[in-house]
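Appendix B, record 7
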Amino acid sequence: MTGKVSFITGAGRGQGRAHAVLQAREGADIIAIDICEDIESNPYPMASWDDLMATKTLVEQEGRRCVAIKADVRVREQLGDALNQGITELGQLTTVMANAGIMPLAMGDPQPMDFQDAVDVDLIGVMNTVAVAIPRLVPAGNGASIIITGSIAALIPGTMSQAADPRTIMGPGGEGYSWSKQVLVDYTQRMALQLAPNGIRVNIVHPTNCNTHLMNCAGIYQVFRPDLEGDVSKDDFRPASEFYHALPTAWLEPEDVAELVLFLASDASKHMTGTSIPIDAGCMIKWPNGPGQ
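Structure tokens (predicted):
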């Protein structure tokens, strides 16, 4: 990826940081974006400014340049300004990683706005990211690439159903997350058709449980262990998550997802667009009709 410039949202930690570091290692300069503040309905803390600065440091340790900017994917003007600043410093944009996402778990107190908050980040935030990037990607022509973070929840039937979530603690926020990821599959295909004449590729990846703050919260643990009362630990969650997969693994690491994204960002995938790729440790083949079916 030498000579490429990547625009990555949600880059403060987790999957976004993994994308930034690996792409920098392969020669890309990075425009790293994160909200750097909490969202009230989201029970786990969002990345901080210090987290985003740590990503910048890691990129620079790989010998590449990094422009790190505080911006909210829900606000298109902020994204546009951040992208323009990054391009001014780093040059022609070639790659977009629309990665920012939340899952505002209800935790026993569901609120209708939890659904909207999830949609605003997980769906509208992706669309905003793509919208501000398209005019700046078109000059790059063949070789430009947009990669969207989906979720295996978008592909497996009933992942967020009442049957799969007996405590209903995920509530409106979990539904907003799942619905957004489902819509993004169709969005990816339609946008890929629109951008194909310009040589710009659009693909979406669907990770299973990934070892980030989104996974490591009480709500997720309890969903997988409804048989346990009281606090549920990561050790309690591990065997249930491993059972969810066909391969003997409990979850992915962010770097695992970054390897797939690197391929889609590189010229090695120059003939791929509109694809929807699971990285799921085999849970789709284990549960073709949905969890437990």
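Remarks on this record: The chain has one domain: 5-209+253-280. The mean pLDDT is 92.
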